[in-house]
Amino acid sequence: xxxxxxxxxxxxxxxxxxxTDTVPSFVKDSLDVYVQTALKExxxxxxxxxxxxxxxxxxxxxxxxxETGANDKVxxxxxxxxxxxxxxxxxxxxxxxxxxxxxxxxDKVQKWxxxxxxxxxxxxxxxxxxxLLCHRLGFETFQGDFMYFDSDLSLQEVRERMGxxxxxxSFRSKWGYTNCAFMTAGEIIPKVxxxxxxxxxxxSIFTPLGMNHSLALSKDIKTAAxxxxxxxxxxxxxxxxxxxxxxxxxxAGSISSSVNDLSHWVMTQLxxxxxxxxxxxxxxxxxxxxxPHSILGNGRVIFNNGHFSLxxxxxxxxxxxxxxxxxxxxxxxxxxxxxxxxxxxxLGIIVLTNTDANSFYEALKWEIMDAYFGLPxxxxxxxxxxxxxxxxxxxxxxxKKKKDxxxxxxxxxxxxxxxxxxxxxxxGKMTITLEKGxxxxxxxHHKSRYAELELLSPGRxxxxxNDPLYGIKEWLFTIKNGKxxxxxxxxxxxxxxxxxxxxxxx
Length: 506
Known about the structure:
By secondary structure, the chain is an alpha+beta fold. The chain is built from 14 helices and 24 strands. Helix content is about 30%, strand content about 25%. The chain is globular and about 75 Å long. Residues about 1-20 have low confidence and may be disordered.
């Protein structure tokens, strides 16, 4: 899976500079000011940054605070939820099992999970483990995530619903980012090793790499001592929000870690699986995860005139300035993060932030890469923030128009005509009730979340979720012969692009 205020908190918890003339001036002289300016502009309470070059930590620093309005400062061991940066751990774990001949990445999924089902039984029979790890099952990006994300569905119930969901595309025809596929891949690990996904990640990766603070499951960050709180920005105001409850998709995005722990992971990645001289991850497993599997596009973004953008197994792959970039980002309730590798230069960059309302986590990595590549200073943060500010204004203008429309809207239907029970054939139930004169939509598997519906025109409503993560969207009711038939439910794109059609049953 975004927003921003100001509070400038400078914190230098750890600053480790390598004594070398190869450290670019941007890193030596300008990094602190750049980060502090960005925190203020984006309203980011806290961030952590690490740069690794040639096997050494060049800089490892915490900035700002763990929680807005509090004084606890971010340091190198502060835990952030890293979201989809978890995927590289899951893919690497399965590649390790492949390297040790415990399984093959070309094994059919049903060899290990006989109950694995998809909408098309033939696809379920033909899908191999690689297909789960490179997003080529045919689903649209984020398809199904509203149903799964932060819901009360168990992991097994998510798997069952995944099997009923009709993909928008045909098998292996199009790349579509699929969180439930990574969850399914993680479920193969217990079948092979007898250990849960979380236990295997901890025992085979965290422990040997000295990642002693990292947590595999989202439920555990709540009780951790040194942790960043989750934040978002709503209508220009910074807000603390609850942690994401995503252990039903754990192998896709549940890990929490720090820049100190992640520096060990990045060092290992940049040394072909070695950590402190010991081969912890087979080099063949590292190579497997960086093998291109899916085509995304031509890789041209802002100043990057690269020639490809691909996906390996848990990693994005692209060319920039003639070099191969291996990277991933992570977005989950209240956090966005990035991990970037330039293997041929032995350069690694980690940026962690505790709001989901910023693009600074991406801007900084490009700035650092440009500095090491000897390219001109671009001020990516200014570019990203300018685009963000324009989008926010556009959204505010759109919302004002909708609110103005709602204020004068008249409907021939009584409000009670829309109330009742609705059902989606895969998600389950939604109810619409009249509460204190307002139509409220509540969902069977998201009990703490609801949407308030405001009339725009007959059969058309503005739906505002109580949780800002789910956004504000238009919902359209289908009406035939004076009767409510169904409603098309949409949520924020950060959660899912695909609409859900709920049919009125009562």
